[in-house]
Amino acid sequence: MRREASEALLSHFVRAQISTFLSLISCALEGLLGKQDGSEVPMSVLDEMAKAQPSLNRELIAETLDPRLCVAVALSEFIGREPANANEKKRVLLAVSAIASALRFRRIGSGATSARLASQLLGRSEEVITAADLKRRQRAAQPLRRLDNLQASTESPQILQSVKTVVKSLYDEMLRDREELQALWWLFGGSSFLTGKRFSDLSPGTAALMAGAELTTLVNPPAAIGLIAIARRAVKEKGEESMPFATLMSDVSADTMALAAPDSSFGLSIKGNPLLFPVSRFVLFSVDAGRPADMAYAAGLREVPVTVAQIAEQFASEKALLSLITEA
User: Fold this and answer.
1) Upper half-sphere CA count for residue 50 (Cβ side, 13 Å)
2) What is the number of alpha carbons within 13 Å of residue 287 lying toward its C-beta?
3) What SS3 class is residue 16?
């Protein structure tokens, strides 16, 4: 019965609106982590499950079929299969980036079926993200080889198109090089361009937010482990001491948070999916309140001590995820 429900949900990941798509992922992860924070199962999930089991009503489904776990199984299959087209490929990358943002820095138990599935989701997500990052950075064939092929062509339109192709490949290579150089100069310079101060002179909380926010304006997603590790290096002078998230954020003003805050157009996506955007959600609520927000808005972060580097990497992951939402 759960298998039929999961298969019905699988197609929902392909055609759902982005807002619903993110809600589905949050729903799945809530089921695996056992942290529902009073949230309700999206009606679209119950609709799909009801189609798979026409004889059951929504109330019975919610009570007997573990809707969140059914969504988690469907999510696992969605990111594990070969994408059918370019659009589905983008959605898979968005899904694995959301999973990584939610699970990378959480302590996942072992032994229980839900914990094993969560670990499998994270492992598969890291594989897909790393592969996408390597492919994006792969250098193209030598442009000069393409120019050599022009000697065999005598038609002007064909020559023009070939030249355009060569120039575009050179431009793409230049953008990749510039991205990497910008990130290296930023890292070696040790300064925050949003605050105009050196990272060593910033409070730990401010340094964490600025490192995560600034890195993702210099490099493109996906947020592979190697990429977000640059944010960790930027704040290494702050040490590896663990502290409550509330302590880390206590000396960060709302004005400072506003410098790093995600665009307000993402407000609904961020505030509605606390598992995917724990740091961003806290930042937005703090900006709204004009002071550090209540820890109730820091879903998943208020329970465990964190380091400056962890928050820098987490915030970088969330900002990269938002970039993918824009492209989806």
Assistant:
1) 11
2) 17
3) coil
